[in-house]
Amino acid sequence: MNRTIRTAAIMVMAIVALIAMSATASAEPSRTTACTNCHSGVSLPVTTTLVNIVGTNATYSFSSPGADAIAVFSPTAKIAAIEASSGQFTVTVGQTYTVYSVGGPGRNDGVGSTTVSPAPLPDPVPTVTVEIVAGATRYHTAVTASARAFPSGADCVVIATGANWPDALGGGALASAVAGPILLTETGRLPDPVAAEIARLGATRAYVLGGKGAVDDAVFDALEDLLGAGNVTRIGGADRFETANLVSVAAVNEMKAGAGFDGTAFVATGANFPDALAAAPLSVAKGWPLFLAGPNGLSAATTSAMAACGITDVIVLGGTGVVSGTVESGLKTTYGNGNVTRLYGASRYHTAAAVAAYGCNAAGLSWDGLAIATGTDFPDALAGGVLQGVRGSVMLLTDRTLLSAPTASALGGNKSSIEHVTFLGGTGAVSQSVRDAVAGTLQ
């Protein structure tokens, strides 16, 4: 009997020993210390290959010929043990892991290791869509902008000469007030595509900006033929300053008869167009009229027109080289220091960027959908400014052949907000190299 018990005990001990030996040949899942603390012997190389990253999880394949198992350690714990010489394991991105391979059946039958450091996937690069608003001529481009801004039509149109800019600068607020486009015309003839667009819009009335030297009677008569006698109104003064005053008063009167007017106006130089055009989207989106300052400041007629409109707040466009400090001081005396703001920069491109930033930061406009227009000519920005205002976005100006540095800076600084960009005019206005530079900046 004793011999039988002794034999059974020996057998049990042997089985326990075999189980222990089997355990030492594995990666020992219960262990939390590095495998090299327990295993030694020949080197067992282990290779890993990243299979994929899904969210925060990274999956690797592994291979270690000659190994019986692998174990994966984070900096603080064992996180996986696989009794195979090849397979896959999954870890969390953002840490470094050590992958051990171990041989068997004993602890001296080989060990090897490598590390993996899965990095989080970068944020996806937004895909920027590009829209071209252009036509064979400046007149066609304005028609294209009108069609994009008012696909369902408009009751009223604003007509300005495409030959020069002074009379047309203040047209944005009037276009806003009548909820219609700015269309361009030749001085002596209404272009056929413009007449066709007026018909498509279903317009019943029109405003003509400027005197007969800008838009002569032949165009006026052609418009009356389309819209009916008495449905076309000319707004023109003795010069650009008086015309701007009259256009602003007409715009404010239209707004007061409709949705209302908040009392804000722009003051810009009457000597050049870029600063005023950069503000066209704001003028359209908010219904803010434009008054022009001359070389001697604001005329008495202009200050009277501003008073008649009920102006309470003024935004001065451009630096003191174009609208003097004396003008600004006079405005502050009239309206109060806190009610006069100057938006400006070292160049027309800096000023346009400052106006765009103000529009997005203080007036509810968006960087997304911004437009790029040449800063060296006026027609595309004039008509395109209405499109931008209707869409609630802004406009930046650039040199024709080189992306201007302040424009590039504004694009780069706000690229996370930009998924759509519009180019106003053809490649003769904004070259392909500029378009490519814009696309590169937004990546």
In short:
With 443 residues, the chain is an alpha/beta fold. It contains 14 helices and 19 strands. The chain folds into two domains: 23-116, Sandwich (Immunoglobulin-like), CATH 2.60.40; 129-442, no CATH class.
Taking the sheet with the most strands, its summary is:
4 strands, antiparallel
Overall pLDDT level = 91
Distance between the termini: 87 Å
Oligomer: single chain
Placed side by side, the strands forming the largest sheet appear as: 4-3-6-7
Helix content: 25-40%
Strand content: 15-25%
Number of helices: 14
General shape = elongated
Work out the radius of gyration.
37 Å
Total domains: 2
Low-confidence stretches: 1-32
Count of distinct strands: 19
- State the secondary-structure class: alpha/beta
Characterize the structure shown.
- With 443 residues, the protein is of the alpha/beta class.
- The protein folds into two domains: 23-116, Immunoglobulin-like, CATH 2.60.40; 129-442, no CATH class.
- It is built from 14 helices and 19 strands.
- It has helices at residues 2-24, 138-149, 171-178, 192-201, 217-227, 240-256, 274-278, 280-286, 300-309, 325-335, 348-362, 379-391, 405-413, 432-442, and strands spanning 47-54, 57-63, 69-73, 78-82, 86-92, 97-102, 111-116, 129-133, 156-161, 182-185, 205-209, 232-235, 264-269, 290-293, 313-317, 340-343, 366-374, 393-398, 420-424.
- The protein has a four-stranded antiparallel sheet with strand order 4-3-6-7, with no helix packed on it.
- α6 packs parallel to α9 (300-309).
- It is elongated and about 105 Å long.
- 46% of the residues are buried.
